[in-house]
Amino acid sequence: MKMDRRSFIIFSLGAGAGITFSPLPWKLTDDMAIWTQNWPWTPVPPEGVVTHADSVCNLCPGGCGITVRKVGDRVTKIEGREGYQVNNGGICPLGAAGLQLLYGPWRVQSPLRRVGKRGSGQFETISWEDAIDEVVKKLGDLRVKGQASTVACITGLDRGTVPQLFDRFLKAYGSPNFIRTASAGDTYEFALGLMQGATASVGYDLERASFILSFGSGLIEGWGSPVRVIKAHSVWRSGNKKDRATLVQIEPRLSNTAAKADIWYAANPGTEAALALGLAHVIVKGSLYNADFVKNYAFGFEDWNDSKGQNHMGFKSLVLSKYSPEAVSKITGLSAKDIVKLAQDFAKADRPLAVWGRGKGTLPGSLYECMAVHALNALVGNINKPGGVSTRPEVATQAWPEVKQDSTAEVGCSKPRVDGAGSNRYPLTKCLPERWPKEINENGGTIQALLVHEADPFYTTLDSAAVAKAFDRIPFVVSFSSYMDDTAYNADLILPNHQYLERLEDFPTPVGLQKPILGLLQPVVSPQFDTRHVGDVLMTIAKGIGGTVAEAFPWDNYETVLKETMGDKWHTLEKAGYVEADYKPPAWGKAFATPSGKFEFCATAFDKAGMRISKDMDYLPHYQPIQPEGDEATYPLILMPVELIRLADGFIGNPPFCTKTLEATELKGNELFVEVNPKTAADYRLSEGQHAIIETPKGEGKVLVHLSEGIMPGVIGMPKGLGHVGYDDYLAGKGVNVNSLMGVVEDPISGLCATWGIRAKLTSVLS
Amino acid sequence: MSATEEEKKQIVAEGEPAQKHVPGEAAPEPGKPGTWEFLIAIPVFILGVVVCLFVGWVLFPAVLYCEKQQPIDFSHVVHQEAVDEGCESCHFFREDGSFSGIPKLENCSQCHEEAMGEHPEETRLIDEYIEPGKEIPWLVYASQPDCVFFSHAAHINMAELSCGTCHGSIGESDHTRPYQYNILTGYSRDIWGWNIAGIKKNTWDRMKMDDCAECHEEKGTNNACFVCHK
After folding, report:
1. Do both A609 and A649 map to the same domain?
2. DSSP letter for each residue of A455-480
3. B147 touches chain A (CB under 8 A)
4. Mean of pLDDT values over B57-65
5. What is the CATH number of the domain that holds A664?
6. For B74-88, what is each residue's pLDDT tens digit?
7. Is A82 among the domain residues?
8. Cβ pair A7:B197 closer than 8 A
9. B45 and A13 in contact by Cβ < 8 A?
């Protein structure tokens, strides 16, 4: 029989029938469906014993308690720690994404030495011994040459044992240049020093406040200790209408906080101080202030005479003469009626509280603006009161033995700081982290070696071009980062620290908290790579240098340092994971350590510090506009950074989980959106989704345009936290770094960066 | 020279079909070639059916599944005799209620730190795993896919099912049986069941979603997707 066409068709029909009655098609269909669900690259949670361990998150100054869920030795989830005084079970997107920072590809896995051109990202792996030897040799040589004072160190915090070890190292080594990243907290500390004579951080009793007046603070966008503030926001929003707190937001953009507020006022940006003083005018004029506080515990409210009998203007005269609602209306753009109503509502509330610090509070801001807002708090008498604002000390710990300095160290430490802090011009300022690049580039300042710990100055310092130029003039940059951040990427040597889930360290009281609480970072997982604790590494370097530098570190290892520092608190700290201090803000009679012993509306501490203040007004909180850089003719618009809780913009790069949550009107592929009002867009012929070039006096970048009625005409909002060069493909090259477009405008008194925006222009380009 | 009339007729005749059907004439009689072809079609059809049944029922399972042997030939019988608490002696619930599953090496080491007898498999256990401290790479017959959340506590402690309801008589085995896995999905053959048609006689013959759902249906338990697919 021959297989012709007809036979073949008949055979095929039979085959079809046979296959149908066999399990093959049905089983194969099932298997193929399963096969598509089992791609080999799909991450699979491990199986094994589930355990939980408590620690503290250090990804921002918020210091939340965390509980880490582990399967075997693998961390599988980070949750907020229940019952922790700061966040009580809550966690923010960045904290939850901390796992990606632990296991992500941007970890620095061993000591690295740069081999290519700086910034090329070419490194070679070296041993710990070689890495430490290299630092010892370099720092040893500089010391021998009498250049000890040219070594600088930048850290993220200055509280806590590890930053203190760096400070101690520089003291023993012979350099005054311990620099720490600045924030709005610095300006507030400065204001508290002037007005209350306190050396303490600010604490807000947010939970008990009943009327919150926010001067641009992104209360649900990561301001303060983010989870704590969001929880406080929930408290304000709970209860019936009568019991609910009132939230008023002053901001030029409809942020989430503004959207959630009871009233949102879009005042002209940079005029917040004028508004605060306008409110003060209404409160003073209507005698709505706390008369007991103002009369008995405050100085400089009324006009006063100094010891020479010379008469000086008081706060009352200033605000009554210069900040009438009508005058303030012209400055801020708000109606006089609104200003009067807001002032009355604020002053008549049970527990009013004015909060300050733009966005997340990452930029220090204007000192007088901060003082004006603090003066509002003083007027309503909420200083050290429930629902008010207070000074908050740290948990007391054991002091370390005094550093014995040799002559090199003494000479080095007596030299002026490279950032100008503590100089005759800025005698009351501790650090000026935005200022050192300018000193190096323009004023002949020198840094021969820079040590960077838990800070990313290359990325976060404003005016990136100037920072890069200054970096080029520093021959030796050492990063202790656990991640390949932008500074590490541009460093000569990376000595990677254990990641925060792998190490032991104390964490100082979270920013803005009214109670002192010291948390403990615990190694909840064994080190994943060839990393070492930075405390141990620093002590090894000190011992390598020898002499009094080595003697300054009599401890065997960092753990001993921590235990000795904590003293009798160590047992509680180890067991509970935190220590709280029993602290109650002092009563008004004992609260103020100013020259007058009272709350000073008029800051006479300027005289004590030897600062030359010529005009009466300069002792008082007043409106001194911080002008954005650039001329209006060339740059008709104003660029302001927008801070989002879903976008980390500090020394931690945004993890992929968080980047995924950015909206399609914030980031599209690698392109960043800027937000502009449709009116502005019409003026410059821009449309939704169109490409544009944003240009400022400091730089330019290509962006996409997003139109929003929620931003003031003439203002451009740009998300802050993108445009990294370090990290990896999940972050590097995405968007534009807003810091690279901004410049540093110094506060005339503190020298801190008072920048809030910069003049800009937006030009449409064809896609 | 033109063709003759006869030649023309011939050409016309050749151009016509050989068996032109003329309406009104009778159909071809039986025994002629067309009928024979119809009969030969039946065995060809059957051949197609048989070949593909063979492929589907015999060849396909043979190709679809690969076989591996367990790292150690383990006897449940021997161990059941030596322990007091039955299955739970080694397959226990942890303090937090999670199930330990296949015992870790640490469990084995509690008794086999040193040899208890002379069985060659025990010697291998000690030499290859216990002494070097290497976990035994057991092949898990009942391993469910990662998209399934399965709680032993809910089934054993709350629903009071016996181990055998799903695992059959494995606790009575004297030798480990070969482990077969699907080359496409990587799943153990026990999930689909050893019967390639998926026909089951006992509750433990298959562990597919339908089997879970069937039992949930019978017991009146929630059968919503999220119960197992979190």
Report:
1. no
2. --HHHHSS-HHHHHHHHHT-SEEEE-
3. yes
4. 94
5. 2.40.40.20
6. 999 999 998 888 888
7. no
8. no
9. yes
